[in-house]
Amino acid sequence: MKTNRAVRTPGGMSVRLDVRSLTVVLLLLLAALAASVVLIGTGDFPIPAADVLRALAGNGNAGQEFIINELRLPRVLVALLVGASLGLGGALFQAISRNPLGSPDILGLGQGSAAGALIVIVLMSGSATQVTVGALLGGLATGIAIYLLAWKQGVHGYRLVLVGIGVSAILTALNGYLLTRSDLTDAARAVVWMTGSLSGRDWDQVWPLLALCVVLVPLVLTRARDLRMMEMGDDVSYALGVRVERVRMLLLVAAVLLTATATAAAGPISFVALIAPQVARRLTRSPGPNLLPSLCMGATLLVTADWVSQRVFGADQLPVGVVTGVLGGVYLLWLLVAERRAGRI
Amino acid sequence: MLVDSPPEQRAETAPAPPNRRAIRAIGLLASLALLALAVVASIAIGAKALSVGEVWHGLFEDSGTYADVVVADRLSRTVLGVLAGAALGLSGAVLQALTRNPLADPGLLGINAGASAAVVTAISFLGVTSLNGYVWFAFVGAAAVGAMVWFLGGSRGATPVRLALAGTAITAALYGYLQAVMILDNAALNRMRFWTVGSLSSATDSTVVQVLPFLLAGSVLALALARPLNAVAMGDDTAKALGANLNRTRALSMLAATVLCGAATAACGPIVFVGLMVPHVVRSFTGPDLRWILPYAAVLSPVLLLASDILGRVVARPAELQVGIVTALLGGPVFILLVRRRRTAQL
Fold it and tell me: Where residue B12 falls among pLDDT bands split at 50, 70, 90?
């Protein structure tokens, strides 16, 4: 298959079309939707896929419609949106830090959100909504702190990662301390939150996530071109007319917002932000930042992981973060074996 | 890279002038004095403050007074602090040399995760509840993961990148397991949340005795590796050309680091940053020669660990802040400062 094609309009404009990336995006979207339908049908009260589709179209029976629209659909939408945000956020972080390991988990954003949530849970015994707000504030504050600490006449990718590792260690200690100070019920609640869970998520979590994605995703995608040029290094991109520091700051703010909101909604689900961009890149075989494929990959990955956790452990026994964690380990091991066989490391 | 540097620069840095060697030796003696000071402070400071005279009395003229009992009680945690600190510093220095990564840390190779997973298994499935029981599990878990990382990393063909990747992968999978167990078993969570922060306070004499042989053997091995590791630092090709046995050095370094870090983690729980930071700071003073870095790290790491432990006892009096938390809260900012101070090209 020829992967690149130039499309010319009669007006003399031309667009480079990456056929393979486009195919991957479409296939991943299809996979995400299919997995969502299966996930909606999964639970203590199984519903066949045909009935799910009928109920979503508004032609199902009353009982099924209640279960689907009120209980399962919002959860699946949260999974899709969180996965998409994490996938896109991860791709942005990896592109900006120019490091395939520069994901928000490693940079300590997850720990920051967890610290915010733990403070609410342990010190204030707050409600679920308050925990969400706390996590959001924690994540945003951490993002700002990392950016400011890494700033030294501009933000260098490697420094960003290393500063993130330092911040992450401090916050991990803080979280450990808060866990030892809490009573056991709060500690159990905190650990479930820190693993990342989708259970009990409803429409209240869907709307803010959706609103944010609607605003940020187009904004970020219009900057994909600048990001691709920035992969050539700051000096070259300046010469090509990219305002590097401005674009970098804009995209970092977007990435932090996406990650912090997703984490506030579902907890710091590990590895989606790390893996989705890498897998997407392998599928598209395209060197660019692969923003849209990463977004679709993240959504597919999280919905599938949630389905796996429900099938393997039973409904709501273990949060989805356990599955993504193990999945992440398996992916890295596979990477190790594959890269070794290819003689690259 | 040493091989690429221009000759005049090499001539400047390569042979250490005699007075520099003397300075290093004096520095090492000063570090030892600092360690002695830290030991005394660690015994004297706490919920019941003791004078230096009382510490002396308790250590050498024990007659069973109240102060003597306090000294005996604080002595075991202080001894453990010295041993574990030295072990963490040595294993960090060895790993940084082995992986040629100045920011490598025993946690990078999955050793902490292995110990944690083994301890949670012991608590949740085997009903082990005593701390002395954990020690063996933690040690075996750390050693098993160390071996696994070694084989996954390609054993004889292990390169720094492979080892780090294998360690990260295993850590990820084990933390998934750890979290799953803690969510399903509240009793395990209750014990683990105290174990994972890393503390010297639960140390008893028998804990010290249990891990002592491993710490001693590991330290001797690590110190003996200084010269071969110096060759590794020059890159694989140069090291081979100089006649170094890379495979043997790598295997032995991995063994030493695993035994040291595993035993320290088994006794105190995972303590971060000591193994990362001390060799790093020491290097800026001694230069890249591991024959100096290793002894310095072995002496100064316990100073940091004991100081953190003392600080943890003082700030939250009469309760205690676990030493693992203090090292991270102190080490994190220092680490960030170090990262910021370097020029971009050096990163």
Answer: very low
